[in-house]
Structure formats: structure tokens, C-alpha cells
């Protein structure tokens, strides 16, 4: 495959559901998908001169976004009074710089709106609010209609490029659809 370059040109976010009134395309100024980072534990065995790291899991997922101005509907999604998870769906237009093709990127996140932080108001400047999605229990990342990453806390399913990464573990532990 020849070298290529893909650039995100635009994004949109739906908070809570796909009701067109929940589209944040007019106020979304920043979108940070969750960082994918393994957790490691140092291990220095008694019979070795050199220590190593052992992968022991994946860090919690915490996506963030920024909306310009005030959005009172976001307060409806915040806090302990909201017992359930909410779905946040982000769409991005990725441009293939070699061919000019527009590619859809999509992220589906289930979690809780755990932080709303107002920026300092300064006369003559547009005030924004920073938001964090915490307690993430489901995350999917799609590229051009194909699943690239899938994780669900409740079913323990974990897939990359549609391929189960832990099917043997789920089968042995008799969890979910692998049974």
C-alpha cells in the first residue's frame, strides 16, 4: 500500500442521543477521543539482572470536549442525579490527502457527563465550557464504516478490526457470547 496522509477536517458530537436538536456542530470547538494506554507493572525477577514491564490492563477511558458559549441542555446530562449512562456519538470528516476522498470516522461512547468547567469570562471574548465523559463503560471507534476498536465493560468483549482479542479468556471464564 502506498504512503498516505489522513487529516480530520470537521467534527460533530451528539450528546445523549441522535435527536437533531442535540447536535453540537455549531458550538463544538475541541474533541479529544479517549487515550488508549496500557497499564504496566514493573517486574524484576530474582533470577534476572534486568527488570521489565508486564502489561496488566488498559487505563480508564476519558474523552473530553469543549463547547463555545453556554449550553443549558448539557446540565441535564450532568451529575449524580442522573443514575444511568448516556450515549455520546462523535462524527469526524477525515480527508484522504492522496485521493481527496472524505472518510467517516465515528466514535460511540457510553459514560457519564462527569465534569463541566466554565472558562473565565472576559469581556470581548467568547466564553467556552470544558466537558469530560467519565465512568466510560462502552467505546467503539469506526473508520469508513468498519469497526476498528470495540470494548464493552459489561460483556468484557474487546475487539480490534472486528477480531476478538480475548475470546479464549471469555470462553474459559464462561463470560458472554463466547460460552
Q: Major sheet, described briefly?
A: 9 strands, antiparallel
> Gap between N and C termini, in Å?
38 Å
**In percent terms, what proportion of residues is strand?**
over 45%
Identify the overall geometry: globular
Are there runs of 5+ residues with pLDDT below 50, and where?
Answer: none
* Relative helix content: under 10%
Mean pLDDT: 93
Q: Roughly how many Å is the radius of gyration?
A: 20 Å
Which structural class best describes the helix and strand composition? mainly beta
Q: What is the tally of beta strands? A: 11
- DSSP summary: helix tally: 2
Listing every helix as H and every strand as E from the N terminus to the C terminus, the arrangement reads: EEEEEHEEEEEEH
Concise summary:
By secondary structure, this protein is mainly beta. It contains two helices and eleven strands, in the order βββββαββββββα. The chain has helices spanning 72-75, 167-173; strands at residues 6-16, 28-32, 38-43, 52-58, 64-68, 86-96, 102-118, 128-143, 146-152, 158-160, 163-164.
Describe the structure in your own words.
This protein starts with 5 loop residues before the first strand and ends in a 6-residue tail after the last helix. It is built from 2 helices and 11 strands. Strand 10 and strand 11 form a beta hairpin. The protein has 179 residues and is mostly beta strands. The model has no long low-confidence stretch (mean pLDDT 93). The radius of gyration is 20 Å and the shape is globular. Strands 1, 2, 5, 6, 7, 8, 9, 10 and 11 form a 9-stranded antiparallel β-sheet that branches.
Amino acid at each position: 500500500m502506498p504512503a498516505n496522509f489522513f487529516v480530520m477536517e470537521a467534527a460533530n458530537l451528539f450528546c445523549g442521543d441522535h435527536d437533531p436538536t442535540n447536535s453540537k456542530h455549531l458550538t463544538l470547538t475541541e474533541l479529544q477521543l479517549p487515550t488508549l494506554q496500557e497499564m504496566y507493572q514493573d517486574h524484576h525477577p530474582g533470577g534476572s539482572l534486568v527488570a521489565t514491564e508486564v502489561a496488566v490492563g488498559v487505563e480508564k477511558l476519558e474523552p473530553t470536549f469543549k463547547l463555545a458559549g453556554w449550553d443549558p441542555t448539557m446540565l441535564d446530562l450532568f451529575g449524580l442525579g442522573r443514575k444511568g449512562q448516556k450515549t455520546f456519538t462523535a462524527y469526524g470528516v477525515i480527508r484522504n490527502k492522496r485521493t481527496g476522498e472524505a472518510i467517516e470516522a465515528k466514535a460511540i461512547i457510553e459514560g457519564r457527563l462527569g465534569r463541566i468547567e466554565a472558562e473565565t469570562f472576559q469581556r470581548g471574548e467568547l466564553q467556552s465550557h470544558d466537558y469530560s465523559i467519565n465512568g466510560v463503560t462502552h467505546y467503539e471507534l469506526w473508520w469508513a464504516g468498519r469497526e476498528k476498536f470495540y470494548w464493552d465493560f459489561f460483556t468484557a468483549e474487546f475487539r480490534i478490526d472486528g477480531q476478538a482479542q480475548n475470546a479464549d479468556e471469555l470462553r474459559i471464564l464462561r463470560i458472554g457470547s463466547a460460552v
